[in-house]
Amino acid sequence: MNCKNGVGPSRRKVLGGAATALTAMALGVDGAQADSGLGASGAPVELRVIANSAFSHTWQTVLVPEFNKVYPNIRVTIDGVPYNEHLAKLMLEATSTNPEYDVLVIDDPWTPQLAQLGALVDLKGPKVAPITSADYDWADFNPAPLASGEWSGKQYSIPVRSNMLMMFYNRAHYQKAGLPEPTPGLTWKQYFEQAPKLVQDMNGDGTIDAWAVDTFFVRDQLTPTIWQAIMNSNGGALLDDKGSPIFNNEIGVAALEMHRKLLDYAPPGSLGHGLQESLQTFRQGAVATMFMWGSVYKASGIDTRASTLTLKELGMQVMPVGTAGPGTHRGIWTAGISAKTRKMKASWAFVEWLTSKKGEAVNAALAGSFPARKSTLTQPSEEWMKPVYIALQQAYDVAANGKMWRIRSPRSDATQQILADEIARALAGQVTPKAALDLAARRISRILR
Predict the structure, then answer these.
(1) Tag placement on the chain: N or C end, fewer CB within 10 Å?
(2) Fold equal for 9-163+331-396 and 165-329+411-448
(3) 124 near 154, Cβ under 8 Å?
(4) Contacts of 225 (CB under 8 A, 6+ apart)
(5) Going along 129-255, which residue ranges are E strands?
(6) What pLDDT digit, counting tens, does each position of 193-219 carry?
(7) Rounded CA gap, 168 and 293, in Å?
(8) Helix or strand holding residue 262 (H, E)
């Protein structure tokens, strides 16, 4: 997320401290850097990174210059790829005899698939452990985001842009409707009791111009995460202990019925809404709540070019509480090192810097990325971060306790495509929730076998 606000005193403090602390990691002088594979003046190391186009430009223009203050002889080029092309590009890299990239930025469910192909280096293994700084502190990461980069007992990637599915709300809508502001204790039952009152006339002209909710309803890989968050909050799960689908039980069906019921209180045409459409209606003040990825918070309450909302109006918390607790869903971008790179030390220098305590603080302050480290979450550098980081820490804890993430398998992407197909058919009323989930369970069971 691009941030073009001025760097205030708090940011200068963060960046100054980061530069000082991280200089030691760079070994300090050109000769030492050259000896350790980190380049030298006049002979830099060229490093290429593949990342999602949603944030690659910000990283290139904002984060790379900060990295180069510590490692001046490593030239980093970050190539942005649209999300729907990203996994295919990573798979080509994994099988290519002439790979292009040294560092791979990976979405949450893709690590098992890439790890199974041998595309990634074990970051706690013999190639990287000896060149890792003594103060890197693996234990400082929250378990839920860190686990997104694990597979078969090895750590193949590390969180660089954490995200959790959250509940956004507009305080003005709740005030207009005479309802109390949502709290982390809000239940799904209470939410649906309040929803009819949030479909209202906000400007007083006698016409309904505001609705209760917008979120993912269209056929999209992210749409099933809403259903799953509801299901998880009620104690449901995608798979049993043996890895067989169990989401088509009573809990899963009831959760999908609730997901479909949200359409009763959504704007006209919401069946075709995904990320961009939901963001637009919420940022324009047309809905009271939005179930969405938390990383959009800053652009929704600070960036006046993207949103009409102010921080005073904007609230964010975990999703409503079911019978088992609050809901959320994990969505973590991680960075790993290509097993085919010939620039191991330079690659790890970049990944280690980006995910270190100081580097993560720089990433959060300048690029608005959500941190994964417990220490960063307790030391927000700006005022707006304080309530956001509290909510984010709660979401991490909730996700870890309820295993609230997509299927972890080398076939994860294929299973998510199936869920996207069947959840969309149920939301559109083409089949019953039970029929949709039964078919999805049969198809996924065959794939996982």
Answers:
(1) C
(2) yes
(3) yes
(4) 165, 216, 329, 331, 406
(5) 150-151, 154-155, 158-161, 165-170, 211-214
(6) 999 999 999 999 999 999 999 999 999
(7) 9
(8) none
Number of other residues whose CB lies within 10 A of the CB of residue 151? 21
Amino acid at 327: G
DSSP secondary structure, 275-297, as one string: HHHHHHHHHTT-EEEEEEEGGGH
CATH architecture of 9-163+331-396: 3-Layer(aba) Sandwich (3.40)
How far CA 76 is from CA of 154, 265, 358, 393, in Å, comes to: 26, 47, 19, 31
Per the DSSP assignment, residues forming a β-bridge with 213 are 289
Residue whose token pair is 């309530």: 387
Cα(first)–Cα(last) distance of the chain, in Å?
39
Q: Domain boundaries in the chain?
A: 9-163+331-396, 165-329+411-448
DSSP assignment of 187-217 equals: BHHHHHHHGGGGSB-SSSSSS--BEEEE---
Closest CA to 256 of 58, 436, 442, 31: 436
Residue 397 structure tokens: 């804890």
Q: Which amino acid is at 77?
A: T
Identity at 295, one-letter amino acid code:
S
CATH, domain range 165-329+411-448: 3.40.190.10
Residue count (the chain): 449
Residue type (1 letter), 420: A
Q: Exposed/middle/buried for 397, CB within 10 Å: 0-12, 13-18, 19+?
A: middle
In tens, the pLDDT along 134-189 reads: 999 999 999 999 999 999 999 999 999 999 999 999 999 999 999 999 999 999 99
Round to whole Å and give the CA distance between 246 and 28. 55
Q: Can you give the pTM of this predicted structure? A: 0.89
Q: Is 50 helix (H, G, I), strand (E, B) or coil?
A: strand
